Amino acid sequence: MSLLSVTDLGVTAPTGRALVTGLTFDLEAGSRLGLIGESGSGKSVSSLAITGLLGAGLTASGSVLLDGVQVVGAAERRLVPLRGRAASVVFQEPLTALDPLMRIGRQVQEPIARHRGLRGAALRAAAVEALAEVSLTDERIARAYPHEISGGQRQRAAIAIALASRPKLLIADEPTTALDVTVQAEILALLDRLVEARGMALLFISHDLAVVSAMTSDVIVMRDGHAVKRGTMDALLAAPSDPDSADPYVIELVRSARALDAMLGEK
Ligand SMILES: Nc1ncnc2c1ncn2[C@@H]1O[C@H](COP(=O)(O)OP(=O)(O)OP(=O)(O)O)[C@@H](O)[C@H]1O
Question: Which domains are present in the chain?
Answer without folding.
Answer: 4-266 (3.40.50.300)
